[in-house]
Design brief:
The chain has 57 residues and is mostly helical. The chain contains 2 helices and no strands. The protein has helices at residues 9-23, 29-39.
Length: 57
């Protein structure tokens, strides 16, 4: 059974836009591969900082 990766809507929209630009010849194959690599990173939950660390304002 295959598992589906969860991707953010923003990444989905950015990737769709990049595909359109690539199809129109505006971005190169290499640049499209970079977008593919960035969009295929796993979404992981951000860890909370330790309570002893100062909070930046």
């Amino acid at each position: 059974m295959a598992t589906k990766k969860t991707r953010s809507r923003a990444l989905e929209e950015m990737h769709e836009t990049a595909r359109g630009l690539h199809k129109a010849g505006v971005i190169t194959k290499r640049r499209m591969q970079e977008y593919d690599a960035l969009c295929n990173l796993e979404n992981t939950a951000m860890k909370k900082p330790p309570k002893s660390s100062p909070v930046l304002a």
